[in-house]
Amino acid sequence: MNFKNFNWLKKLGPGLLFAGAAIGVSHLVQSTRAGADFGFGLIWALILIHIIKYPFFQFGPRYSSATGESLLDGYKKLGKGVLIAYFVLNLATMFTIQAAVTIVTAGLAANLFGITTNPITWSIIITVICFILLLIGKYKLLDNLMKLIIVTLTVSTLVAVIIAYFNTSNTYSLTQVLPKGSVEVGFLIAFLGWMPAPLDISIWQSLWCIEKQKDKNIEFNTKQSIFDFNIGFAATLILGICFVSLGAIVMYNSGETFNTSAVQFTQQLIQLYTSSLGEEVYIFIAAAAFTTMFSTTITTLDASPRAMSKTFELLTNKSYKNTYWFWISFLALGTIAILLFFMSEMGVLIKIATILSFLTAPFFAIINFVLVSGKNMPKKWRPSLQMKIYSWLGILFLIGFSIWYLTSL
Fold first, then answer.
1. Using CA atoms, how far apart are residues 300 and 201, in angstroms rounded to an integer?
2. The model's pTM
3. What is the dihedral of CA 368, 372, 375, 377, to 10 degrees?
4. What CATH number has the domain bearing residue 56?
């Protein structure tokens, strides 16, 4: 067998990190809730938001691999105000996002490992472990770890959906629904805001692309970076549909509702699998779910500090030796502080973060589009006319949907 045929696997990296960061709360929590509350009725929203956001996520690796610089470098060229706006927005949401993914991971850890059911204790343990792993392994650890995690998660989730489908005697309608009322519309906005991820994750991926290009043993050109991204993006869509399906098949019209406690909620979440696959596979399903959220926790703990460090250097026009470690320590401590002192407000904080993610989507969509269409971008890799039309339609949709939400409050 010629193992050189598998060299493309080594070239994968930032796209799978994108999937690792995206497939977390938006999938395990919100997609499952969408299925439980609306059946298959929000599949339209899931597919549509992937289609709408696709070009703006793809512009991240496209720009970085073609120019050799991150989106943040490009933002500075558009004006310092753009960079300041990103800095403020990220500072306002990164602690809440990190706390949200960490507490869900903690709930899964409590169900999987026992020891203690206190999610705060588990959150601190998980944050410390992630910090140490990043300190030791840095980007290369994330790159290698994510290949295994995404493959394992995809296979286990697809198997769970197939078995759940054949084991149920219920019939389901594929009729699509448009949520009504402030509560349902609020859920839809949160669902779309973090599905498959907030648009600013394109910045993270551009930074990961720069790190990937530092590996001189692997050629990571623009064509490869787009292929790599497409693999990760496809995984987020497929698994999103799978989690909606699990929620619809097991929970819809069952009379059950999800608990707001992290430990209780994750226990119910694992039951979605075990009720279909059998109690004997509980440990494997719990491990798969935990691995999913752990991957999100560690990728976000790496990405936000990486982005803030780069932004700070660009704003001050200085290069600092340890800014990444300052920001990662700041984020870790801030996350723990939120969980210790503001746990009762987590629901409100998460809602604010998800709504901000949605309302700021047009901002990131526009500036990403302007960058890849501008003079700094090599002509070969600028968007085609068809991609430009596609992008403008996406921008108009994001603006229109934001206006609809604000007028429906």
1. 9
2. 0.85
3. 130
4. 1.20.1740.10
